[in-house]
C-alpha cells in the first residue's frame, strides 16, 4: 500500500506493519501471516514448524526468506511475528501459505483460550517459557 508522506512524498506501508499495530491495540488470540510459501523454510526446503523467539536467528533464515517484495520480506514477517509474541503472551502467531488447508482451518475455527493449534507444514512462532 502506498502512503503520502511529508518527508519522502510517498512510501510503502506493509500489511505486516499494520498487523503489529492492530495486535497491540486489539490484543487478539491469534494472528496469521498468509504468504506464498508454507511457512519459514530451511535451506533444504522443509518448513520450520516451530520458530522460537530469541532462540532461532532471524538473519540465518534460508536465502528465499530474505527475498524482498514491495512490502518487505519473510525476515520482516518473522521479526514482526516475534514482536507480537513478545508483547502478547496469549496470542498465537502463525505463518501459513495463503491457499492451503492450514489457512482454511485457522480462518474458519475458533480457538479456546487454553487450546493450542498445531499445524503440520506451517510455522508457529513461540516464546520459550
Structural account:
This protein is an alpha/beta fold and 129 residues long. The chain has a single domain (29-127), classed as Carbamate kinase. It contains three helices and ten strands, in the order E-E-H-E-E-E-E-E-E-H-E-H-E. It has helices spanning 15-26, 74-87, 101-108, and strands spanning 2-5, 9-12, 30-35, 40-41, 47-48, 50-53, 68-69, 72-73, 92-97, 123-127. The strands form four sheets. Strands 3-9-10-6 form a four-stranded mixed beta sheet, sandwiched between helices. A hairpin with a 5-residue loop joins strand 4 (40-41) and strand 5. Helix 1 runs parallel beside helix 2 (74-87). It is globular.
Supply the helix-strand structural class: alpha/beta
Beta-strand segment tally: 10
Please work out how many helical segments DSSP would assign.
3
Query: Might you state the CATH topology name?
Result: Carbamate kinase
- Describe the strand arrangement of the main beta sheet, using strand numbers: 3-9-10-6
The span between the termini is 36 Å
In CATH, the homologous superfamily goes by the name Acetylglutamate kinase-like
Helix content estimate: 25-40%
| Highest-level CATH class | Alpha Beta
Give the helices and strands as they follow along the chain.
EEHEEEEEEHEHE
Mean pLDDT: 83
CATH architecture annotation name? 3-Layer(aba) Sandwich
Overall body shape = globular
Outline the low-pLDDT stretches: none
**Which strand-content bin applies to the residues?**
25-35%
Radius of gyration: 15 Å
Give the biggest sheet.
4 strands, mixed
| Tally of domains | 1
Organism: Rotaria socialis
Domain Aspartate/glutamate/uridylate kinase: 9-96
Protein name: Aspartate/glutamate/uridylate kinase domain-containing protein
Pfam families: AA_kinase
